[in-house]
Automatic annotation (TrEMBL):
Pathway: Isoprenoid biosynthesis. Gene3D superfamilies: Farnesyl Diphosphate Synthase. Its EC number is 2.5.1.-. This is Polyprenyl synthetase family protein. It comes from the Bacteria. Keywords: Magnesium, Metal-binding, Transferase. The keyword Transmembrane does not apply. It comes from Gordonia phosphorivorans.
Length: 336
């Protein structure tokens, strides 16, 4: 039977089974590491891990490990677990900053307990990730420290805003720092810990960069385009939060976007204006769906896919490359 995971076509047979077993090992290590404290700390720290999730980042690391000679090594499992722990930690902090009531269909930690507990749970995950990565050696510690810095910088950059700079480039920079940097680290870690050579390590890191940004851009498009399909997503979430994503920024650059600017930009401050009325959201979505901005965003996504395919061509053929190729194609195909 063919195995498909979060857009990754893993094919059939020994390779797919090996990846699935490795992911089980990651899950076991993740819960073991987060269950080492007092009862209240364990409950809060494992809250999001037990809520599920795609486990996309550890999967990315596991696939990258197949470009080295030891993809089943213990260090590979450790590295994949570290990147997921960091990702989970950022979710705790994001939910506090966004005052989010739900995460993965369950109460967020800040809603179940309070902001202080959620922040401390995220801090605990960062601490456990730091302890775990120290077993991989100084180079791994440095990479994670640099990734920590990128994640924080991206959040700070998003909070401060473009400050008169190019809003499109600002947004893409934020997306890379908040999303692409950790997926790039997953690719680098998976390849490094399996013993891959430096050229392959760098290629897999670059693929992580590209795929991380591309996935966010495709989500941006879907947040608008889902008004016209049956995806089950609630369209316009970003508009309600006053977040201007790539298709919105492109649309606002158009010469015929006066009504869209009235809806989405505060006339006095020039800052994004959150939409609170359903009628305004519906009108903005209709304008965006028909806008040049959506076409430009899709074109940019296509160029990212081309870049990823070019990097993949540097890697040897095999089921791991096939899986990454299916992921890149899925990233583009999912937006329609």
């Amino acid at each position: 039977m063919k195995s498909t995971f979060a857009g990754l076509d893993l094919g059939t047979g020994e390779f797919a089974e090996g990846v699935a077993q490795a992911l089980v090992r990651v899950e076991d290590l993740l819960l073991a590491e987060l269950s080492s404290g007092d009862e209240i700390l364990t409950e809060a720290a494992t809250h999001l891990a037990k809520a599920g999730g795609k486990r996309f980042r550890p999967m990315f690391a596991l696939l990258a490990s197949h470009f080295g000679p030891d993809p089943e090594g213990t260090d590979v499992i450790t590295a994949a677990t570290v990147v997921e722990m960091i990702h989970l930690a950022t979710l705790y902090h994001d939910d506090v900053m966004d005052d989010a009531p739900l995460r993965r269909g369950a109460l967020s930690a800040n809603a179940r307990w309070n902001n202080s507990i959620a922040i401390l749970a995220g801090d605990f995950l960062f601490a456990r990730a730091s302890r775990l990565v120290s077993t991989l050696g100084p180079d791994s510690v440095r990479i994670i420290a640099e990734t920590f810095a990128e994640l924080v910088t991206g959040q700070m950059r998003e909070t401060v805003g473009a400050r008169g700079g190019d809003p499109v480039e600002h947004y893409l920079k934020v997306v890379w720092e908040k999303t692409g940097s950790l997926i790039a680290a997953a690719g680098r870690f998976g390849a490094m810990t399996s013993g891959a050579d430096a050229e392959r390590v760098e290629a897999l890191s670059r693929i992580g960069d590209i795929v991380g940004v591309a996935f966010q851009v495709s989500d941006d498009i879907i947040d608008i385009a889902s008004v016209t399909d049956d995806s089950g997503k609630t369209p316009g979430t970003d508009l309600r939060e006053g977040v201007h994503t790539l298709p919105v920024l492109y649309a606002l650059e158009s010469s015929d976007a006066s009504r869209l600017r009235e809806l989405l930009v505060d006339a006095e401050t020039g800052e994004p204006r959150p939409l609170t009325e359903d009628a305004e959201v519906a009108e903005a979505l209709q304008l965006l769906v028909a806008s040049e901005g959506m076409d430009r965003a899709r074109q940019r996504l296509g160029r990212m896919a081309d870049e990823a395919h070019a990097e993949l061509a540097r890697l040897p053929e095999g089921p791991a490359r096939d899986a990454f190729t299916s992921l890149v194609n899925y990233t583009v195909d999912r937006v329609g």
